[in-house]
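#structure-requests
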Amino acid sequence: MRYVKNHMITLLIFENKLVITAVDSNPIEVEEGKNEITNLLKIFCDPKTYEQAYEEINKKIYITEKHYKEIFEFLRVNNILKEYHQIDTGLTKYEYEKYDRQIKSFASLTGYEYPQAVEIQKKISNFKVAIIGVGGTGSHLALALASIGVNNMILVDFDKIELSNTSRQILYDENDIGKLKINVACDKLKRYNSNLEIKAFNKNIKSIEDLSFLDEISDINLLILTADTPRGEIQYIIDEKCKELNIPWLLYGPFEHSKVFIGPYIIPNKTKTFSEIFNKNLINNDSEVNAINDSFIPCVCDPYNAFASQFAAIEILKIITETKESSLINKRFYIDTNDWTVDIVNYE
C-alpha cells in the first residue's frame, strides 16, 4: 500500500509551533517533532510505501523505526496521510478531469479514501432531480447542480424571458428576451455539463392534474420547488403529488428583501408532510384579503437568489452523497442577511 499527503492540509509555523490544518478537525499544534513531520510530508507529496518513506527520510535526518511508526500513525489518525489508490474509476476521461478537484475534496474527508470519493461522484452523476420553476432561484440551483455533475434533470416552467429577468435569473441574458425560459435553460445548462440529460416541460402548474406528467417519469430522487405561484397553493399541490408518488422534496427562497428560508426537507412516510406542518385548514380565505394579495409582486435582488440557491445546493449535496445528514429534516432555517441572524424552527 502507498500513501500520499491529504491534498487539503496546510502548514503554518506560529509562535515556534507547527500548526496543521486538516479537514474535519480543529487545527493540530505540534511542538516536538516539527522537523520530522515536515520532512515526512514532503516525501509523501508523491505516493510512497511505508518502507520507501522511512528509507527516504533517513537519507535526510536520522529517525528510529519506533519514532517513525509513531509519527506515521499520528498522520494517519489525524487524516493528514491518505491511502493512495490507482483504480479503474469507472468514470470517463471527461468526468475524471472535470470533477477532479471535487473528487479530491471528498477524498480528503475523515474516513474516506479515493475509491469512496469516486463512488460519491457516481452517485451525483446518477441522481435525478426535478425542479419546479426555473426563474430566479430555480435557474441558480439548476446551474449549481449541473456544475457538480448531476446528469439527470426534470425542469418545469412556462414563462417567456423578459428584460427584468436578466438582472436576477442567472441562465438568461438580453439576447434571450422573448424566448421560452425552459428552452433557453436547457441550452445553457448543457454548456456547463455536456452529459446532462433534461426532460423539459413547458407547464403552468395550477392544480395537481397539471403534474400528471410526473407519473411517467421513474426514479425521481428529489423534487425542489422554486416556483411561487399559484401563491399560497403551489406548496400544497406539490406536497400532495409527492406524497402520491413517494418523492422526497424541499422548498426554499428569499423573502422580505434581505431574508432567506430553506426547508423543510420532506420525505413521504418518514417525515411530516407540508400539509401537516402548515395546516391549510387554519388559513381563512377572505375574498377581500385574496384580492389584495393578488396584486403582490415578488421583488428580489440577484445576490439573495444566489445565496438561497447555493445554501440549497449544499443541502442537496448532503442528500445525494450521504456524507453528512441533511439539516433540513423537519426543520426550516431562516437567515436574515442584514445581521446574519439564524432562526431554526423544528417541526418534530
